[in-house]
């Protein structure tokens, strides 16, 4: 739980967190006050640890009778990561509660501070425990409570920020859970069930429609169905619609919102397992391919958040072409030709480039039947994007300069790493097929993230469109980095929510 109240420094409790930075730690009156309290031990620790208040520098001191422990921590640019890291230190100390004070360097945007505190605490408490035994679970210690204090009365915006941060954390955790579930437990039908669960809990703001194989066939989605045809499991084309409130109640009277609302369609790659198909992946590359539905999981996380706040005025759609990419006698063969919803024929030279096949029909469907102002797709699309940008950074492409610029600005503000890559038209020639309209790989061995994006772009005629290649940042296989633990990350939710609000 997160609590906040007005209190004089240093108050009492289990673990006091003193955030500082390299500019202020030397003359920080609070540090000096604590130093007196613990009889000079802080000064000694500062010397022993060569502490300079720099980003992520920290030490732990005894609490001088009023606290059990004092954690002194140097905050960089991210308050939420600082809180996440302090939470990890406190977990190792077996702390029961964290107590931190508002500091001048946090600024005065109390909504934002509250939001970051909640995100930092909740997301760093996340772990995927579903398949862990009792023994492991009992050993796991979590810090139960976080207290945020201020010597002055905290404005109501702080509480609103905390509340918003909680809602965001829940949506992100939902996405992380879905990504972390193995393909033995996460099927197209499971994604359908999740969509319906969101609809049910939404009390009318979300409606879900699911197209089965026959309906997809009738609409001409041969490209998506081609990916699905090798699997024993039925494909599901999931469409969600969130309708923003057109009016709100203020002072007991109903007010019609006069801000103009937009229609935005979020498309999420939802391959619940990517074996590569007959263009089979090597064993090592297949190990993490349960994550190939991370785009769809992020879209569900976002719709879940929208449903629970009900405040966003825009009409937001989610489109999830969900299926498995598997090997069988029914699988698509390299060289096969499929016909997409927009009538274009595609020579499938590599069945492992399946994401773009599923997304081709999904974006074409969105444009034809939903007619949104914007399409944003999230897809674990290419290993090439990871080669280009590494595991932390999303590649963003788009056909509208302003939209891309705006997205990048928001992402930077939300602390989600991103870098623009070009939709370089001359490379389209590599996607021309001798016997069909397109082939699904460039085949040069270079610029694979660009070919993937260009391919999807061939199925968007006139709508403003952003493509996010999240192959790297959707999943963290390395060490814990602030609020990003091991496993699914929920990349993109914060930025897209910030755009929608
Ligand atoms: N799902 C993969 C991309 C991927 C790789 C996601 C690693 C996350 C981590 C995608 O379907 C794929 O296999 N892409 C191929 C494309 C190639 C055949 C043109 C790739 O990146 O190798
Ligand atoms: Zn693939
Ligand atoms: Zn894939």
Briefly say what this structure is.
With about 500 residues, the chain is α/β, with parallel strands linked by helices. It has helices spanning about 30-35, 40-50, 80-90, 110-125, 135-140, 155-180, 190-200, 215-220, 220-230, 285, 295-310, 355-370, 385-390, 400-415, 450-455, 495-500, and strands spanning about 1-5, 15-20, 60, 70-75, 95-100, 145-150, 205-210, 235-245, 245-250, 255, 265-270, 270-275, 315-325, 335-340, 345-350, 375-380, 395-400, 420, 440, 465-470, 475, 485-490.
Question: Helices and strands in order, then pairings?
Answer:
Elements: E1 2-6, E2 15-20, H1 29-37, H2 41-48, E3 58-62, E4 69-74, H3 79-92, E5 97-101, H4 110-124, H5 134-139, E6 145-150, H6 156-180, H7 188-201, E7 206-211, H8 213-219, H9 222-228, E8 236-243, E9 247-250, E10 253-256, E11 263-268, E12 270-274, H10 283-286, H11 294-309, E13 315-325, E14 336-339, E15 345-348, H12 355-370, E16 374-379, H13 383-389, E17 394-398, H14 401-414, E18 418-420, E19 438-439, H15 448-457, E20 464-469, E21 475-476, E22 487-488, H16 493-500
Parallel strand pairs: 1-6, 2-4, 2-5, 5-6, 11-13, 11-16, 12-13, 15-19, 16-20, 17-18
Antiparallel strand pairs: 3-4, 7-8, 8-13, 9-10, 14-15, 17-20, 21-22
Helix pairs in contact: 3-4, 4-6, 6-11, 7-11, 9-12, 12-15, 14-16
Bound molecules: ligand BES and zinc ion (ZN) (2 copies).
Mean pLDDT: 96
Bound molecules: ligand BES, zinc ion
Fraction of residues in helix: 25-40%
Number of helices: 16
Q: What structural category do the secondary elements indicate?
A: alpha/beta
**Sheet with the most strands?**
9 strands, mixed
Strand content: 15-25%
Rg of Cα set: 25 Å
Q: What general outline do the C-alpha atoms trace? A: elongated
The parts where pLDDT drops under 50 for at least 5 residues are none
């Amino acid at each position: 739980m997160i609590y906040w109240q007005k209190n004089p420094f240093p108050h009492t409790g289990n673990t006091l967190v003193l955030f500082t930075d390299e500019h202020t730690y030397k003359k920080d009156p609070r540090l000096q006050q604590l130093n007196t309290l613990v009889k000079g031990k802080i000064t000694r620790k500062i010397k022993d640890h060569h502490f300079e208040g720099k980003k992520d520098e920290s030490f732990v001191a005894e609490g001088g009778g009023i606290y059990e422990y004092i954690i002194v921590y140097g905050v960089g640019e991210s308050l939420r990561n600082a809180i996440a890291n302090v939470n990890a230190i406190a977990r190792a100390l077996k702390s029961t509660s964290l107590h931190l004070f508002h500091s001048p360097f946090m600024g005065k945007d109390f909504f934002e501070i509250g939001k970051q505190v909640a995100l930092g605490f909740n997301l760093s408490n996340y772990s995927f425990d579903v398949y862990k035994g009792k023994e492991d679970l009992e050993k796991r210690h979590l810090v139960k409570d976080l207290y945020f204090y201020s010597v002055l009365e905290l404005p109501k915006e702080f509480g609103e920020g905390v509340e918003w941060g909680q809602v965001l954390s829940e949506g992100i955790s939902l996405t992380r859970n879905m990504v972390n579930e193995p393909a033995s437990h996460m099927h197209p039908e499971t994604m359908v069930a999740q969509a319906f669960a969101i609809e049910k809990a939404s009390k009318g703001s979300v409606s879900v429609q699911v197209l089965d194989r026959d309906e997809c066939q009738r609409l001409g989605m041969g490209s998506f169905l081609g990916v699905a045809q090798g699997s024993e499991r039925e494909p599901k084309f999931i469409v969600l619609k969130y309708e923003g409130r057109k009016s709100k109640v203020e002072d007991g009277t109903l007010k019609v919102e006069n801000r103009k609302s937009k229609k935005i369609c979020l498309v999420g790659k939802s391959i619940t397992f990517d074996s590569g198909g007959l263009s089979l992946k090597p064993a090592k590359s297949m190990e993490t391919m349960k994550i190939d539905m991370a785009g769809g999981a992020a879209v569900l996380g976002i719709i879940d958040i929208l449903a629970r706040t009900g405040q966003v005025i825009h009409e937001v759609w989610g489109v999830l072409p969900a299926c498995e990419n598997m090997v069988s006698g029914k699988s698509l063969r390299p060289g096969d030709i499929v016909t997409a919803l927009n009538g274009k024929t595609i020579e499938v030279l590599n069945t492992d480039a399946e994401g773009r096949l599923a997304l081709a029909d999904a974006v074409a469907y969105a444009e034809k039947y939903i007619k949104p102002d914007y399409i944003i797709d999230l897809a674990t699309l290419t290993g090439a994007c990871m080669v280009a940008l590494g595991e932390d950074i999303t590649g963003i492409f788009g056909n509208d300069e302003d939209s891309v610029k705006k997205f990048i600005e928001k992402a930077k503000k939300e602390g989600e790493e991103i870098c623009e890559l070009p939709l370089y038209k001359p490379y389209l020639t590599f996607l021309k097929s001798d016997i069909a309209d397109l082939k699904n790989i460039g085949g040069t061995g270079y610029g694979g993230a660009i070919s993937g994006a260009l391919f999807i772009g061939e199925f968007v005629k006139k709508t403003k469109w952003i493509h996010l290649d999240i192959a790297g940042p959707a999943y963290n296989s390395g060490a814990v980095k602030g609020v990003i633990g091991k496993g699914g990350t929920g990349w993109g939710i914060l930025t897209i929510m910030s755009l929608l609000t």
